[in-house]
Design brief:
The protein has 385 residues and is α+β, with helices and mostly antiparallel strands. Among the domains are: 40 residues, no CATH class; 167 residues, Nucleic acid-binding proteins (OB fold (Dihydrolipoamide Acetyltransferase, E2P), Beta Barrel). The protein is built from ten helices and seven strands. The strands form two sheets. Strands 1-2-3-5-4 form a five-stranded mixed beta barrel. It has a two-stranded antiparallel ribbon with strand order 6-7. A hairpin with a 2-residue loop joins strand 2 and strand 3. Helix 1 runs antiparallel to helix 10 and helix 3 packs antiparallel against helix 4. The protein is elongated. The two termini are 41 Å apart. 14% of the residues are buried.
């Protein structure tokens, strides 16, 4: 009688165990990521940039009838209407109208329009900036040339040095207050005349840096500016500025900087056509005072590093403990099922053995006695005589 085929053992991990393991690993990764993000000071910059709503009390509106000018207008209209009607007192009405007008304008001041909120930084001269030529390089006036083309070059250089002079005396905080953050890159490239002279704010990655020598001595004590390329996503901006910010890498590394989150506020001059080995590439040209680097990351102390290491190691140990516990639980389940299968197989084997013994005994009783079993010697058949 063939033995029944035992059931295949269950998988090492049940579906519920796999889900628990994946959840534990995900929580561990999330915990490590959260620790790194929360330790970075730049994560909390949005709290400082949140503006509180204005709580200033609004001035009560004054009714028009309470204004002296309103009463003056009513009196003037009444006298004028009376003077235009035919009556014997018309000359007196004209005299009263003139006297009332003189007295009113002498004692009741006319409303003064408040000055418009202007720029904090020095405003540029639009007539000079209109001389800038778009999609050209840095044009200079060569004294050896005296043709019309040289006049165009001189105008472009005048516009550039005009912004150099303003950027040299402007305050970086004033430029930041005047800076516009709603101007698109495509608008500067396609409509530069609409934004010439406006202060534009950009925030991106500083790719490289070098000095820009000045050929004019119009700024006392300033012989050079600095120029660099700031990329905002796929778009590049050409920046010229006077002062270097603190925290930049040494000059030997200026060819490949890749400094992230660099801010810059500068006057927009024109679309500059820069040439390199790959060809000519246009960039919006901004001229400002300095760059704004991101705040340095806080240096981790020994205590903070110890607690970070302790949390990471403890979390890893917790995950490993969960894995081994789930593995041992699955092994115990498998061992219990295997023992049950073996017990069933042993019981079936014992039952099959008793049946075979009974059948062999019955067959021996019914066998022919004329053919006895051959005698054996030491477990072997005796040889014939």
């Amino acid at each position: 009688m063939p033995l029944p085929r035992p059931n295949p053992p269950p998988p090492l991990f049940a579906p519920k165990d796999v889900l628990r393991l994946v959840a534990a690993l995900s929580m561990m990764v999330l915990l490590v990521f959260a620790i790194g993000r929360f330790k970075n000071p730049r994560t909390w910059l949005w709290v400082e940039q949140t503006k509180r709503p204005s709580t200033a009390a609004q001035e009560p509106e004054i009714a028009p009838s309470a204004s002296p000018l309103y009463r003056q207008a009513l009196i003037s209209q009444a006298i004028g209407f009376y003077a235009l009607t035919p009556n014997p007192f018309t000359p007196i009405a004209f005299m009263a109208l003139g006297a009332e007008g003189v007295a009113s304008f002498e004692h009741v001041p006319l409303p003064v329009r408040p000055p418009p909120s202007g720029r904090h930084a020095p405003p540029p001269d639009g007539n000079i900036l209109d001389l800038a030529i778009d999609r050209k390089g840095f044009l200079t006036d060569d004294p050896n040339e005296s043709d019309y083309n040289n006049a165009l070059k001189k105008g472009d250089a005048d516009a550039r040095y005009h912004l150099f002079e303003l950027a040299a005396v402007a305050n970086a905080a004033d430029l930041a207050q005047d800076a516009r953050r709603d101007v698109r890159y495509t608008a500067l490239m396609q409509k530069p005349q609409d934004y010439r002279g406006d202060v534009i704010h950009i925030q991106g990655q500083l790719r490289w840096l070098r000095t820009f020598e000045l050929t004019r001595s119009t700024i006392p004590g300033v012989t050079h500016f600095y120029e660099g390329l700031i990329t905002v996503g796929p778009d590049g901006y050409w920046a010229l500025f006077k002062d270097l910010p603190a925290g930049l890498p040494p000059a030997a590394q200026w060819n490949n900087l890749y400094v992230h989150d660099v801010g810059f506020d500068g006057y927009f001059l024109k679309v500059l056509l820069a040439k390199n080995s790959k060809g000519a590439i246009p960039f919006p040209l901004l001229i400002g005072r300095t760059l704004v680097l991101p705040p340095p990351e806080a240096e981790s102390s020994l205590e903070a590093s110890f607690w970070t290491l302790l949390i990471v190691v403890g979390g890893a140990g917790l995950v490993l403990s969960v894995i081994f516990w789930l593995h041992g639980l699955s092994e115990r389940r498998y061992a219990a099922r295997l023992a049950a299968v073996r017990a069933k197989a042993q019981a079936a084997r014992l039952e099959s053995g008793e049946t075979d013994v009974a059948e062999s005994a019955s067959a021996h009783d019914n066998s022919d006695s004329d053919f006895p079993e051959k005698p054996r010697l030491n477990g072997q058949q005796r040889p014939p005589v």
